[in-house]
């Protein structure tokens, strides 16, 4: 397992910048996620680590070895593709053995390692099956076994679960994480599925237009998004426009004037301070809004319920804020369900859950 370091990586395709001076370090043994909208450059970044692309500028290091110019087959990376990229004319064992055949390993070693890899992905006994005789989930496992069999320095996964149905996707999340951790592998996993990233990642980066906008552990990114794009991409949220007034009497918190009164919140990491009068946008997650009482909060938002959706474990409300926007409220395990009505309600939010972002 290796520490992967990307240093000021830049890539242009036909003159347009697809990766823009990307700096990133993925420590040995970490399961790291690249998450971002379609076309932001995730696959391009992964392919640079694999060695399929050369950067226009910048360097790639595996530990202290500069691999920027090293061809893919000499990097020792295992790659799993969205399409699986299995050979239909070869059986399961032959598909898995491919990387070892290429490396001209002795026959007995190949047989032993293929059996071991099939065991790891729970496909023992299926070595002689044809690829067409496997389910999508089993094909995905063959692709994983083929990457693992070469005992890679790092594992690179490009949307490996997108072709599976929802139930299988959930199962495979746990399994892939388990395999990566059991082998102590450094892994980079590309997806645009935020639940996959939130539930599996040790750390993750949110990418947008060829740049890493924010890097951190899932909880931090969810609770402390750095920009409006990150806040929206990583989960549902309500945006409220306003104008910063002043630092509040609580260190690190600011009062923001909105069309429906003053809300107190914090910036995402405490390093940025909005100037008095500066236009800002607030991000408030639906589950942090409540009809109950919030201990530390002076944040009360008046409105009325315009829509109620019962979802079993949760109830979602749309609140028309008086003098403000529509806001989504999500209550977990509610005792009482409120129906749409003109009656005024007050939703509350702790000041810690109001994130002030640059507009
Ligand atoms: P998706 O989630 O849709 O797979 P992505 O974030 O992985 O998207 P990339 O596949 O890395 O995005 O593509 C980034 C940009 O680079 C896109 O605009 C794409 O059209 C462009 N691009 C990717 N590969 C090439 C190539 N070989 N030649 C020219 N342009 C390319």
TrEMBL record:
GO cellular component annotations, sorted alphabetically?
A: ATP-binding cassette (ABC) transporter complex
Q: Does the keyword Repeat apply?
A: no
GO BP terms: namely: quaternary ammonium group transport
- Which InterPro entries did the record assign? AAA+_ATPase (IPR003593), ABC_SmlMolc_Importer (IPR050093), ABC_transporter-like_ATP-bd (IPR003439), ABC_transporter-like_CS (IPR017871), Mo/tungstate-bd_C_term_dom (IPR008995), P-loop_NTPase (IPR027417), Transp-assoc_OB_typ2 (IPR013611)
Keywords of this entry: ATP-binding, Nucleotide-binding, Transport
Q: What Gene3D superfamilies is this protein classified in? A: 2.40.50.100, P-loop containing nucleotide triphosphate hydrolases
* Signal peptide positions (record): none
Q: Which SMART domains match?
A: AAA
Q: Which GO terms describe its molecular function?
A: ATP binding; ATP hydrolysis activity; transmembrane transporter activity
Which Pfam families does the record associate with it?
Answer: ABC_tran (PF00005), TOBE_2 (PF08402)
Q: Which SUPFAM superfamilies match?
A: MOP-like, P-loop containing nucleoside triphosphate hydrolases
Domain ABC transporter residue range list: 4-234
PANTHER family of this UniProt entry? Answer: SPERMIDINE/PUTRESCINE IMPORT ATP-BINDING PROTEIN POTA, SPERMIDINE_PUTRESCINE IMPORT ATP-BINDING PROTEIN POTA
Protein name listed in UniProt: ABC-type Fe3+/spermidine/putrescine transport system ATPase subunit
Which organism was this protein described from? Prosthecobacter vanneervenii
State the organism's lineage. Bacteria, Pseudomonadati, Verrucomicrobiota, Verrucomicrobiia, Verrucomicrobiales
């Amino acid at each position: 397992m290796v520490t992967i370091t990307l240093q000021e990586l830049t890539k242009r395709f036909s003159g347009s910048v697809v990766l823009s001076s990307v700096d990133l370090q993925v420590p040995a043994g970490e399961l790291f996620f690249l998450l971002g909208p379609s076309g932001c450059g995730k696959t391009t970044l992964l392919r640079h680590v694999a060695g399929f692309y050369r950067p226009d500028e910048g360097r790639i290091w595996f530990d202290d070895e500069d691999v920027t110019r090293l061809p893919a087959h000499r990097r020792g990376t295992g790659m799993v593709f969205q399409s699986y990229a299995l050979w239909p004319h070869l059986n399961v064992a032959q598909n898995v053995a491919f990387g070892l055949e290429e490396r001209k390993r002795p026959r007995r070693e190949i047989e032993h390692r293929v059996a071991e890899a099939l065991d790891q992905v729970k496909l023992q006994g299926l070595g002689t099956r044809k690829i067409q005789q496997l389910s999508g989930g089993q094909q995905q496992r063959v692709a994983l076994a083929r990457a693992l069999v070469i005992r890679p320095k790092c594992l690179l996964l490009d949307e490996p679960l997108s072709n599976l149905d929802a139930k299988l996707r959930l199962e495979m999340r746990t399994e892939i994480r388990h395999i990566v951790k059991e082998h102590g592998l450094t892994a980079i996993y590309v997806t645009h599925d935020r639940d996959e990233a939130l539930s599996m990642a040790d750390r993750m980066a949110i990418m947008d237009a060829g740049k890493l906008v924010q890097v951190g552990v899932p909880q931090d990114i969810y609770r402390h998004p750095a920009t409006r794009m990150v806040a929206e991409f990583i989960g549902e949220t309500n945006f409220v426009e306003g104008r910063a007034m002043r630092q509040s009497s609580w260190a690190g918190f600011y009062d923001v004037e909105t069309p429906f009164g003053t809300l107190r919140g914090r910036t995402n990491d405490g390093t940025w301070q909005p100037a008095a009068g500066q236009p800002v946008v607030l991000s408030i997650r639906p589950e942090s809004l409540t009809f109950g009482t919030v201990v530390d909060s002076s944040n009360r938002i008046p409105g009325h319920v315009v829509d109620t959706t019962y979802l079993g474990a949760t109830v979602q409300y749309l609140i028309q804020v008086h003098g403000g926007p529509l806001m989504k409220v999500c209550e977990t395990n509610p005792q009482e369900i409120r129906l749409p009505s003109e009656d005024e309600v007050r939703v509350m939010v702790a000041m810690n859950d109001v994130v002030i972002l640059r507009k």
